[in-house]
């Protein structure tokens, strides 16, 4: 059975790391945001595409990719991810896409997400997602222009 992540559960997980990453980086950061040691704070990256929602991954179903641990709600989702991780991994290493568009990195809340043109974009919170979506194509272009330079 898959567990849909609630905003409250993710907010509790993300709060501690959000404050630490909401300012410009002073030292080289990892290419993948790993809140609580997990990519997407443990959310299943495939579920955003197949179920159209944030779903908590299981500790027993994991994979290592690109220097991060990813969790999945099912073995099938794990296999899909491993077959084509670039198709499912969030853009900008899973950092807040709006922050990257502004030239810095920030933590994310897995329930603040957008899939646009087949790509997953995560945001700091739902308010930030609203700002990001106001000029989606413009903000995405700015973020791509800043990535990966914001990591150094």
Structural summary, described in words:
Helix content is 38%, strand content 19%. The radius of gyration is 14 Å and the shape is globular. The chain has helices spanning 7-21, 47-50, 75-83, 85-88, 97-101, 126-134, 136-146, and strands spanning 3-4, 34-35, 38-39, 55-56, 58-65, 68-72, 113-116, 119-122. It is α+β, with helices and mostly antiparallel strands and 152 residues long.
Main attributes of the structure:
single chain, 152 residues, alpha+beta, two-stranded antiparallel ribbon, two-stranded antiparallel sheet, 7 helices, 38% helix, globular
Q: TL;DR of this structure?
A:
With 152 residues, this protein is of the alpha+beta class. The protein has seven helices and eight strands. The protein is 38% helix and 19% strand.
Mean pLDDT over all positions: 88
| General form | globular
For the termini, the CA-CA separation is: 40 Å
Secondary-structure-based class equals alpha+beta
pLDDT < 50 runs, ≥5 residues: 10-25
Question: Per DSSP, what share of the residues sits in E-state strands of 2 or more residues?
Answer: 15-25%
What is the N-to-C order of secondary-structure elements (H for helix, E for strand)? EHEEHEEEHHHEEHH
Number of strands: 8
- Please tell me how large the radius of gyration is: 14 Å
The tally of helices reads 7
Largest sheet: 2 strands, antiparallel
- State the helical fraction: 25-40%
Strand order of the largest sheet: 1-4
């Amino acid at each position: 059975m898959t567990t849909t992540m609630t905003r409250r559960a993710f907010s509790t997980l993300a709060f501690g790391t959000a404050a630490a990453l909401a300012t410009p980086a002073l030292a080289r950061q990892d290419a993948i945001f790993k809140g609580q040691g997990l990519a997407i704070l443990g959310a299943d990256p495939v579920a955003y595409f197949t179920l159209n929602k944030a779903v908590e991954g299981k500790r027993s179903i994991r994979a290592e990719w690109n220097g991060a641990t990813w969790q999945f709600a099912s073995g099938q989702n794990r296999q899909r991810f491993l077959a084509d991780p670039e198709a499912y991994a969030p853009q900008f290493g899973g950092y807040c896409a709006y922050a990257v568009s502004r030239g810095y990195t920030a933590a994310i809340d897995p329930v603040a997400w957008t899939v646009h043109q087949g790509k997953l974009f995560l945001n700091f919170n739902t308010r930030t997602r609203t700002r990001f979506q106001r000029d989606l194509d413009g903000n995405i272009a700015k973020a791509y222009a800043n990535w990966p330079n914001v990591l150094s």
